[in-house]
UniProtKB/TrEMBL annotation:
Function noted in UniProt: Catalyzes the ferrous insertion into protoporphyrin IX.
Domain of life assignment: Bacteria
CDD domains listed in its UniProt record: Ferrochelatase_C, Ferrochelatase_N
NCBIfam families found in the cross-reference section: hemH
Pathway recorded for this protein: Porphyrin-containing compound metabolism; protoheme biosynthesis; protoheme from protoporphyrin-IX: step 1/1
Protein name in the entry: Ferrochelatase
A biological process term (GO) from this entry: heme biosynthetic process
Higher taxonomy: Bacteria, Pseudomonadati, Pseudomonadota, Alphaproteobacteria, Rhodobacterales
Gene Ontology CC terms, in alphabetical order: cytoplasm
One GO MF term attached to the UniProt entry: metal ion binding
Amino acid sequence: MTLPEHAPASQPQSPARKIGVLIANLGTPDSPDYWPMRRYLSEFLSDKRVIDYPAWKWQPLLQTVILTKRPFTSGANYRLIWNNEANESPLMTITKQQVAALRERTAALWGDRVMVDFCMRYGNPSTPDVVERMVKAGCDRILFFPLYPQYAGATTATANDQFFRALMGQKAQPAARTVPPYFDRPDYIAALAASVERALGGRQPRKLVASYHGMPRRYFEEGDPYFLQCTETSRLLRERLGWDEDVIDTTFQSVFGTEEWLRPYTVEHVAELAQRGITEIAVISPAFSADCIETLEEIQGEIREAFIHAGGKEFTYIPCLNAEPDHIDVLTAVIGENLGGWV
Ligand SMILES: C=CC1=C(C)c2cc3[nH]c(cc4nc(cc5[nH]c(cc1n2)c(C)c5CCC(=O)O)C(CCC(=O)O)=C4C)c(C)c3C=C
Ligand SMILES: [Fe+2]
Ligand SMILES: [Fe+2]
């Protein structure tokens, strides 16, 4: 290609046009030590989509009280589950496995025209860095896929916000699409049901607790559809399993701060179940596409202990869909549908 005289020497030779599929998850600290934990939590908890108090009110409390103590307590929890071999959190390891599996599938379907990569909303690899890499590799179209089955302002919307902010920095801005929530897709529900059957060997438990990450109740009252999408996932899962209405309970975990969050709280609910004589339960966590600190430490630690302490006997944790082949099938199908007209 002949460049016009005024083109800078560094002008890129237009590389082959590609389509980027950018998988996004929440993020995770680079290490469980104090400063990486503090940096990560500060970025996360300064996000207005997560904590919506005015900065003048929230930042002094966050930067002094909360970020003095929480990096130590959260760091200790991350240490319990850390993948020491790869020196990263389980969320990072599983996200990499999901992306590796998706690359195989997309390569088989669309060859090297489609490139798959991942970014995190907080921490590394950052959304702007990966968008930049995709543009440099020749992507003139990007499909952005926040890996949350249920929409929440604090997860899907803030990931999308960050993606669009990253695009603001691009001179040659690619065309962009975002993937909608998939909480009610029959193949996602079928993959959840299969994970229940795998973990329980096909038997029906006395109670299956579907524990979703919580959020302040006020966000729901102000219009966030997360609660409704979670209850719909539970209902469809129960129907798919063919179980009676009282077998699955929907609960919410990970309460943070002093406001009322979505109820019932998982930790209280499992203790009540044990006290009512329901001493064998299974717990699934459909809002997480990958096992993370909230499932590996909170559910399998704190929540399990609350159940046993209240008289519970058998607590079965059903792992997230992670890089299971049927989960990768679902994600590939979602990608294929959302690439309509591009491939
Ligand atoms: C799956 C959906 C999620 C929603 C909804 C959500 C809302 C939300 N979260 C916080 C505060 C914290 N969340 C933390 C961890 C965390 N949260 C999600 C997902 C959702 N959050 C994931 C996948 C993770 C795990 C990340 C990992 O590295 O494994 C934490 C940090 C953990 C800790 O310090 O112990 C906090 C804090 C709020 C306030 C909120 C709703 C507005
Ligand atoms: Fe969270
Ligand atoms: Fe937690």
